[in-house]
Amino acid sequence: MTSPNAKYGLLARGIRRDLSEKGWVPVRYWAIWWWALGVAMVVFYVVLTPIWLGLRAAAWVAELRSRLR
CA 33: distance to chain centroid? Predict the structure, then answer.
């Protein structure tokens, strides 16, 4: 008799239940996921993007000054 997870190969070794019947994800995991995604977007767009733009502007100004000399 073959396992219902035989098609997954080594990834499903030792798993006794059928991987196609995983069930529902608890609400707390969804809440954690959306909270982490929101924090990551704020960090990227609010904190890191202005820093990056400021560095690029400073490099651009430095290059223009060096060309004018």
Answer: 10
